[in-house]
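For reproducibility, we list the full input for the S-adenosylmethionine complex.
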Amino acid sequence: MNVAQYIETVVDRFDSAELHYGHGTENSFDEAVYLVYGVLGIDYETSIDVANRILTSDEHSKLDEKVEKRISQRIPVAYLLNEAWFAGFKFFSDSRALVPRSPIAELIQSNFQSLLLTKPNTVLDLCCGGGCIGISTAKHYESVQVDLADFDPAALGLALSNINLHDVGSRVKIIQSDLFSAIYSNYDLILCNPPYVSAQEYKILPDEFKQEPAIGLVCGDDGLALPVRILREAANYLAHEGMLIMEVGHSAKLLAQRFESVPFLWLEFNRGGSGVLALSQQQLQQYSGEFN
Ligand SMILES: C[S@@+](CC[C@H](N)C(=O)[O-])C[C@H]1O[C@@H](n2cnc3c(N)ncnc32)[C@H](O)[C@@H]1O
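The corresponding predicted structure, in tokenized form, follows.
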């Protein structure tokens, strides 16, 4: 069987298993290609004529094993391959942190649209998980200093592996911190993808999400406990011209309703995704009373 034929069989199996997509791909074909190319070590961009390549029996059985795990255990492909792509960079990925998928990737690649007046010198990636947001920012801006902060030591272990993978240890540091409790600096930019799923929503999420650490997803009864704490405290950790960019996903509606007077800037994305807000240090300070 050749690669294209094998991918077709995987698509059929994924379709009948009614998998959930959203950890890097959006449909069964893309998911099958991601898995098959990943297992075979095929480069998406440089490989031509891959489709007709005949699979060896060894490759076939390796692929079968991963496909079976994807279906029977609902393990996201990134965890099966131990790698994920974010903002054009490859990262180690495993169940110590969420599979990278934040639309903040597009912001990094577009120089943060026109939100920043100048290049940031210092960036905090708060709730960093495996560090994809902060490390991609460090790769994008050659001289920026980045701190990666997370409460979970396991996630920080993965972040450290990613710092080493990208050889950015001289500019990127990890800090174990409950939000800002162990942060003692001011930053030009705080990027943050905190947990924002309500306990109720979490219960009905597809099984794929249950493979990820719950601490990275669930956040109290309404999903807003940590985002609101971040809004309350962030001004104290930003330079005067600094900016907070934070993802709150589906909780955006509730947040905007609860704080009607706050002029959240909701960012738009060409590659999909929503629920990412931007507020300047001055706005955060001006409206800090609202978040109490
Ligand atoms: C949605 S994940 C984001 C991971 C990564 N930034 C990304 O975009 O893929 C949220 C992260 O917040 C961390 N977290 C949860 N509660 C926290 C807290 N109180 N302080 C700091 N980090 C926390 C979790 O450990 C998890 O790694």
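Strands lie at 83-86, 89-92, 122-126, 145-150, 172-176, 187-192, 238-247, 265-266, 276-280. The pocket of S-adenosylmethionine is lined by residues 97-98, 100, 102, 127-129, 132-133, 150-152, 155, 177-179, 193-195, 215-216, 226 (CB under 6 Å). Both points were considered when choosing residues for closer inspection.
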